[in-house]
Amino acid sequence: MNRLSKSVWLSILAGLSAGAIAQPAPDAGYPTRPIRMIAPSSAGGPVDVIARVVAQGLGEALGQQVVVDNRAGAAGIIGAELVSHAAPDGYTLMYGFSGPLAIAPQLAAKLPYDATKDFAPVSLVAQGQYILIARPSLPVSSVKELVALARAQPGKLNFGSGGNGTGIHLSGELLKLTAGINIVHVPYKGAGPGMAALLANEVDFMFNGLPPALPHVKSGKLKGLAVAGAKRSPLLPDMPTLREGGVAFDIAGWYGIVAPPKTPRAIVNRVHVATVKVLATPSIAENLTR
Q1: Among 121, 71, 88, 152, which Cα is nearest to 256's?
Q2: In which band, very low, low, confident or very high, does the pLDDT at 28 lie, cut at 50, 70 and 90?
Q3: Domains, the chain
Q4: How distant, in Å, are the alpha carbons of 2, 137, 191, 194, 266 from that of 159?
Q5: What are phi and psi of 160, to 5 degrees?
Q6: Which of 37, 110, 194, 248 has the fewest Cβ atoms within 10 Å of its own Cβ atom?
Q7: Higher per-residue pLDDT: 4 or 213
Q8: What is the Cα–Cα distance from 92 to 69, expressed in whole angstroms?
Q9: Under 8 Å between Cβ of 227 and 130
Q10: Conformation bin of residue 110: beta by default, left when phi > 0, alpha when psi is -120 to 50
Q11: Could you give the 3-state DSSP secondary structure of residue 243?
């Protein structure tokens, strides 16, 4: 993102990938009871959708149930704060994303945690494209037509998001700045409610993660205008990118597992190894894209 500190993004991503480095042997006794996976988002959004697929696989790999606990609000800050103060015993994890870990530190004057110190990175899980989607009744079929309509009706079109400071919110703001259009932001308490509002024609368009949006685009309930990545998605090979539509930026979301600070490295390694095993399972990719 153009307005975010590159150093913060790189440090977070490097930390999430650090689990690939050799670690001490895992604690053979862990886990002995169910694990809570905090998803700092509402149900139905990209964070929640991917977290549930990964949690199911982790439960099978670790031999204990991994329960997803949605703690939406404040662009993920509420859930992140909970995890940053949780007991460092491996029984509370967070399915983190860019909102509370990289974007919020750049936008908020003060946070109830330090994103670079108050989490133990476990594993980078996924990087996913965003997609620009619109209500079917909006009289546009491309990014160029959307921009033209917004210019013809300044301040009339609105876009939904999962809340101030989320990646899909900043995607809309980047569209506004890059295309030079006057559009109105309508924040919701999570990407799921934002998507529900779009399906109910309460807003005109929004960005969202590809996994939760894909079924609605394929069914015709929503209109896909462009993917926001640097390249076209293999899931929608006929859909152009934003750049192909004349808007010169690309953006994607990233997701990873973190634990409370001071979680023993042996436990971090145990979860990391299990995560790598889960992500190598063909059914996981199928569940995320069907």
Answers
A1: 121
A2: low
A3: 6-128+254-289 (3.40.190.150), 130-227 (3.40.190.10)
A4: 20, 14, 12, 9, 44
A5: -90, 165
A6: 110
A7: 213
A8: 10
A9: yes
A10: beta
A11: coil
Q: Report d(CA 203, CA 131) in Å as an integer.
A: 16
Answer whether 159's CB lies under 8 Å from 246's CB: no
Query: Residue 151 CB: number of other CB atoms within 10 A?
Result: 13
Q: Where do the H-state alpha helices sit in the chain? A: 6-17, 46-62, 77-84, 98, 104-107, 143-152, 167-179, 191-199, 210-219, 265-279, 282-289
- Counting other chains too, the contacts that 84-89 makes at CB distance below 8 Å and 24 or more residues apart are 84/112, 84/113, 84/118, 84/119, 84/260, 84/261, 85/113, 85/260, 86/260, 87/260, 88/120, 88/259, 88/260, 88/261, 88/262, 88/263, 88/264, 89/263, 89/267
Residue 99 DSSP symbol? I
Ramachandran quadrant class, 181 (left: phi over 0; alpha: psi -120 to 50; beta: rest): beta
Do 174 and 242 form a contact (C-beta atoms < 8 A)? no
Q: What percent of the chain has pLDDT over 90?
A: 71
Give me the helices (H) in 18-166, please.
46-62, 77-84, 98, 104-107, 143-152
Strand partners, 205: 134, 159
